[in-house]
Amino acid sequence: MLTERIGNVTLTQAVGSPYYYARYRHDGRQVARSLKTDDIGKARIDAQAISDKLTPPAKAARGDNSFRRFAEDVIAADERRVARGEKNPRLALDQRRILRCHCDEPLGDLDVRRIKTVVLDEFVEELRDKDLSSATIKMILVLVSKTLQAAARAGAIDHVPLMPKVSLKQKVRGWFSLKEYQALLKECKRHEDAGTKVYGYQITDELRRFCTFSVNTFLRPSDAKELRHRHVEIVRTKETQYLRITTDFSKTVNTPVVSMPNAVPIYETLLKTSKAAGFGNPDDFIFMPKYKNRTFVIRNLGRQLRTVLRSAGLYKSTSGETRTLYSLRHSAIMFRLIKGKDMCLLTLARNARTSVEMIDRFYAKHLTAEMNVDVLQSMR
Questions:
Q1: Distance of alpha carbon 73 from the chain centroid
Q2: How far apart are the first and last CA of the chain?
Q3: Are residues 320 and 203 in the same domain?
Q4: Residue 55, class by beta-carbon neighbours within 10 Å (0-12 exposed, 13-18 middle, 19+ buried)?
Q5: pLDDT (tens digit, 9 = 90+) per residue, 32-51?
Q6: Cα Rg for the chain, rounded, in angstroms?
């Protein structure tokens, strides 16, 4: 006969009954309650829920309603299930990795009562800016959902907020036409002058510089946030000028990136501003150098950009695609496909640290014949 301790509840079976029973003390007396189920999995969940309700004062005394605390509770519960042989051993390991790599920084310290649907929507956008696949994002949201359900069972929140929907079909990100890109920069400047604050941090010219730098260097946001001055070299020839960007990190390969000519004065302005603030040394970061937490930097820039995009009416493209920090890289590649003279796709792909196949699948999908009608109609 099964006898299992779950928190403050003893889960048992009764002779002559197909159902599991929860036995516990309440108000000084012993209670035996039928769980009305013969399914051991459901019985354990119900027993845990009863245990959680029996101990709200003790939990409240801990004063910890953080997302991290409930996520750790979820993982610990799954580790027990793994130990009992009910779940694959990889379950708890994968969840711990997800918490450490993707959830702990943006959500870990947040009080679960503050995690609403709008917060989760922003969280998903930040995951997209990391260039994660839809399947990976869905896995991350499973842990988030289980954590919030645990918080609800413990009485920390009244209900679990609606979770964002993530399609397994990879969507092509929105990009900016030249006119939209100019409107974006103008709106950035307007928010700079107005001193707009997003989550307590003021929008400065750094957001505008990040936008122009990204569009002129083809870098992924995840690479740009880690960029240090020692990674950048200014090259000037008789014909042109450019930045040679050589990093020791990248999502793909670490081949040098060659920028557009406009990136040189943009970088020189960034360097001058950094030096005026006491930074600008080779090992200092180019963007927001005073912050060592680079995840915070990219999240902050992403939030500010979304604020600017919404106020400018540019958050969604005409075809309904959401624009994010990654749209800046997308725009950089599209501008070369449209404006570049006799552009070689292999050269573009190598410089953008991607492949011709990826450009064709995700970037050139927006390209139409009319955009390059001069090339289409050219004669030898």
A1: 23
A2: 88
A3: yes
A4: middle
A5: 888 888 878 788 888 888 88
A6: 26
Look at residues 205, 166, 219 and name the one whose alpha carbon lies nearest to residue 304: 205
pTM as predicted: 0.62
| Residue 91 reports pLDDT greater than 80 | yes
Question: 377: exposed, middle or buried (C-beta count within 10 Å: 0-12, 13-18, 19+)?
Answer: exposed
Residues whose CB is less than 8 angstroms from the CB of residue 16 and which lie 6 or more positions away in sequence, other chains included = none
Exposure string (b/e) for 233-260, b if CB count within 10 Å is 16 or more? eeeeeeeeebbebebeeeeeeeeebbbb
**Largest CA-CA distance found in the chain, in angstroms, rounded:** 96
Mark whether 148 and 232 lie in a shared domain. no
Determine, yes or no, domain membership for 72: yes
Q: Are 325 and 193 in the same domain? A: yes
SS (H, E, C) the chain: CCEEEECCEEEEECCCCCCEEEEEEECCEEEEEECCCCCHHHHHHHHHHHHHHHCHHHHHHHCCCEHHHHHHHHHHHHHHHHHCCCCCCHHHHHHHHHHHHHHHHHHCCCEHHHCCHHHHHHHHHHHHHCCCCHHHHHHHHHHHHHHHHHHHHCCCCCCCCCCCCCCCCCCCCCCCCHHHHHHHHHHHHHHHHHCCEECCEECCHHHHHHHHHHHHHCCCHHHHCCCEHHHEEEEECCCCEEEEECCCCCCCCCCCEECCCCHHHHHHHHHHHHHHCCCCCCCCECCCCCCCCHHHHHHHHHHHHHHHHHHHCCCECCCCCECCCHHHHHHHHHHHHHHCCCCCHHHHHHHCCCCHHHHHHHHHHHCCHHHHHHHHCCCC
> For the chain, what's the residue count?
380
Q: Do residues 274 and 185 share a domain?
A: yes
Higher pLDDT: 378 or 311? It is: 311
- Asked if residue 18 and residue 120 are part of one domain, the reply reads no
103-122 average pLDDT score: 89
Distance (Å, rounded) from C-alpha 284 to C-alpha 295? Answer: 16
| C-alpha angle 17-23-24 in degrees, rounded to nearest 5 | 165
Nearest CA among 253, 230, 221, 201 for reference residue 323: 221
Q: Which residues pair with 34 in a beta bridge?
A: 21
CA distance 220 to 371: 24
